[in-house]
From TrEMBL:
Keyword Oxidoreductase: yes
Gene3D superfamilies associated with the record: 3.40.50.1970, Dehydroquinate synthase-like - alpha domain
PROSITE patterns: ADH_IRON_1
Protein name: NADPH-dependent butanol dehydrogenase
Domain Alcohol dehydrogenase iron-type/glycerol dehydrogenase GldA: 7-175
Pfam families membership: ADH_Fe_C (PF25137), Fe-ADH (PF00465)
UniProt keywords, alphabetically: Oxidoreductase
InterPro entries assigned to the protein according to its UniProt record, in alphabetical order: ADH_Fe/GldA, ADH_Fe_C, ADH_Fe_CS, Alcohol_dehydrogenase_Fe, NADPH_BDH
Organism listed in the record: Lacrimispora amygdalina
Residue intervals of the Fe-containing alcohol dehydrogenase-like C-terminal domain: 186-386
Listed PANTHER family: ALCOHOL DEHYDROGENASE, HYDROXYACID-OXOACID TRANSHYDROGENASE, MITOCHONDRIAL
Length: 396
């Protein structure tokens, strides 16, 4: 038996933000990030709509780009004091992910972060509050997924939390919010989304319900991401839908080792974080080559290649064409080819190699590794990460 879970209601299209005033309840806490939602007026609109609906409203502001365990605990404490019956998260993936984790600690104060790190181990939620997610970026799709990524800065590890309980009740996918994204964020979130769809399509848990969502998302992103990056707002609006479809696919089919590697390299180095979407973009061509040694994975990558109009007479040719196309997209999006080139070389080569074995072992143990189509050992993961650092050919 398999399971397919989505939000109870998903409102989409320009102006759909206004739907928030139809929520029913008494108290709502709004979780938001740095300042762009306030700067562009969306936070004020959400607050006004909630008050129009009769809610008492409290704000939790300032969720950082990679939300920390400490931020989650602070938000949960505010929720326990305020006692909301709706949690509304607005912004990029970070405030929505943080709010999902806050939700669990609000309803179950005695649970531990270690408990939640075990995949699909959350307690039953909705004993105190329901959850509404409003994304402003076109990438994470956390508004429709069973996932949250939280960073333990003391350990230098990003933890992907996974449980169908944290799939939001309501998602509002209004492209007006995405039109405010800067170029670099548009590129990184877009490549995050195409990675979601591709990993879902080749996942060992893919099914008839996830395959069409993944394929259509890949085609939409392939058609629209570059134009969106270059300022075409009609393409930007379509990307907001495409990333959501990719999220529906991967939330149910799960992911693979591109994400395992991105999670475990993201916060591992003293030079700075590797932005998640950029990490996915750099690692995806290498992982496709690695996974294509598995015949079924090669066949499915070939199906992706044909679906987006690439040419090849064999699966091997189609896989190579797909890899070349992703690298071409990365180039057009000004994304580096490897970790060594990332942000002008902020990830020190010696530190990378010193930490290689430990990071590789953590990546193999990541929650996303189990659904990757080809099994991988810690030694192979070291080799694969090395290829991603130096842009070497994957030949194993």
């Amino acid at each position: 038996m398999a399971r397919f879970t989505l939000p109870r209601d998903l409102y989409h299209g320009k102006g759909s933000l206004e739907e928030i005033k139809n929520l029913k309840g008494k108290k709502a806490i709004v979780v938001v990030g740095g300042g762009s939602m306030k700067r562009f007026g969306f936070l004020d609109r959400v607050e006004a709509y909630l008050k129009e609906a009769g809610f008492e409203v409290k704000l939790f502001e300032g969720v950082e780009p990679d939300p920390s365990v400490e931020t989650v605990m602070k938000g949960a404490q505010m929720m326990r004091e305020f006692e909301p019956d709706w949690i509304v998260a607005i912004g990029g993936g970070s405030p929505i992910d943080a709010a999902k984790a806050m939700w669990a600690f609000y309803e179950y104060p005695d649970t531990t972060f270690e408990d939640l790190c075990i995949p699909f181990n959350f307690p039953a939620l909705r004993t105190k509050a329901q959850f509404c997610a409003i994304p402003s970026t076109s990438g994470t799709a956390t508004e429709v997924t069973a996932f949250s990524v939280i960073t333990d800065y003391n350990k230098g590890i990003k933890y992907p939390l996974a449980d169908f309980n944290i799939t939001p009740d309501v998602a509002i996918v209004d492209p007006d919010l995405a039109e405010t994204m800067p170029k670099k964020l548009t590129a990184h979130t877009g490549m995050d989304a195409i990675t979601h769809a591709m990993e879902a399509y080749v996942s060992t848990l893919h099914c008839d319900y996830t395959d069409p969502l993944a394929l259509h998302a890949i085609k939409m992103i392939h058609n629209d991401l570059i134009d969106s990056y270059n300022g075409d707002m009609a393409a930007r609006d379509r990307m907001h839908n495409a990333q959501c479809l990719a999220g529906m696919a991967f939330s149910n089919a799960l992911l693979g080792i591109v994400h395992s590697m991105a999670h475990k390299t993201g916060a591992a180095y003293s030079g700075g974080h590797i932005v998640h979407g950029c990490a996915n973009a750099m690692y995806l061509p290498k992982v496709i080559k690695f996974n294509s040694k598995d015949a079924e994975a090669a066949k499915r990558y070939g199906e992706i290649a044909r679906f987006i109009g690439l040419e090849g007479s064999t699966n091997e040719e189609l896989v190579d064409a797909l890899i070349a196309e992703i690298r071409s997209m990365n180039k057009k999006l000004d994304i580096p080819t490897c970790i060594k080139e990332y942000e002008g070389g902020i990830i020190d080569e010696k530190e990378f190699n010193d930490k290689l074995a430990a990071v590789a072992e953590l990546a193999v143990g990541d929650a996303c590794t189990g659904s990757n189509p080809r099994a991988i050992t810690p030694a192979e993961m070291e080799k694969l990460l090395t290829c991603c650092y130096y842009d070497k050919e994957v030949d194993f």
